[in-house]
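Retry 2 of 3 after timeout on previous attempt. Resubmitting structure tokens to design endpoint.
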């Protein structure tokens, strides 16, 4: 992998490796493996993946969360989602190292579909680290930092903004505000980075680097994007911060994204 996150052929290198999981998080991953095997088994579960800071080796105990993606043989059911929530709760209770566990459920058919090839397919092939099961990346293409990839990964920001406003109005506790601020910050930084990704010609999941790179192309918005990155790492409960992100940076970024890359292909 070169300094721009690319392999020798110019395609985006896969992030993460089981060997990069630090000693502090190794027990969490082992417990996750046990719970998944006991709860889902081979009958339901095709493959399991880690993503985020833990498999990248950059996780911070007590601050980082555990991000998991499960590919099921069939479409997820309400029972599957309830089982995943139970595992999340068990891990949250057992390990102070993580600031929450999140388990996403998808079917193999969805991941490998043409519609998701440059979104969920890209995520599995490049951003996910296999935990066990057959790696779906074997059935997916190699990806390059193109406008198509930018559009299909983050070209839905305009659709997300009304949802954020609704959640902000309904947030009644500091915990709810922190959760919302973290998600908003992450989405805006990732959208800001993929906006300039084809021009820069590489990939990064590091939020600080992503914000810095964005600022090279949009200096007038650089300070706001650095605030978004800081909020993603250490969420604030200051309503002025959330208002700036949702009512100023967000709408501008959504409009600029549509102008540069177009809108994401609609989902059913």
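Retry 2 succeeded. Sequence:
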């Amino acid at each position: 992998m070169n300094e721009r996150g690319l392999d020798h052929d110019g395609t985006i290198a896969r992030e993460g490796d089981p060997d990069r999981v630090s000693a502090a998080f190794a027990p969490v991953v082992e417990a996750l493996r046990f719970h998944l095997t006991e709860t889902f088994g081979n009958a339901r579960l095709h493959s399991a993946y880690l993503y985020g800071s833990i498999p990248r080796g950059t996780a911070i105990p007590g601050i980082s969360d555990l991000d998991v993606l499960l590919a099921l043989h069939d479409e997820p059911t309400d029972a599957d989602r309830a089982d995943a929530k139970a595992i999340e709760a068990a891990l949250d209770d057992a390990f102070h190292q993580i600031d929450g566990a999140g388990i996403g459920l998808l079917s193999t058919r969805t991941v490998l579909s043409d519609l998701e090839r440059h979104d969920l397919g890209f995520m599995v092939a490049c951003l996910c680290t296999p935990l066990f099961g057959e790696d779906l990346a074997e059935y997916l293409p190699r990806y390059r930092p193109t406008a198509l990839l930018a559009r299909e990964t983050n070209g839905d920001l305009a659709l997300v903004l009304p949802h954020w406003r609704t959640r902000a109005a309904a947030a009644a506790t500091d915990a709810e505000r922190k959760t919302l601020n973290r998600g908003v910050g992450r989405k805006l930084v990732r959208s800001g980075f993929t906006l300039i990704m084809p021009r820069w010609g590489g990939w990064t999941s590091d939020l600080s680097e992503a914000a810095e790179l964005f600022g090279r192309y949009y200096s007038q918005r650089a300070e706001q994007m650095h605030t978004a990155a800081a909020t993603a790492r250490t969420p604030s409960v200051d309503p002025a911060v959330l208002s700036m992100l949702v009512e100023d940076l967000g709408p501008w970024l959504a409009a600029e994204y549509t102008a540069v890359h177009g809108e994401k292909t609609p989902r059913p």
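Attempt log closed. Residues 62 and 189 are 22 Å apart (CA to CA).
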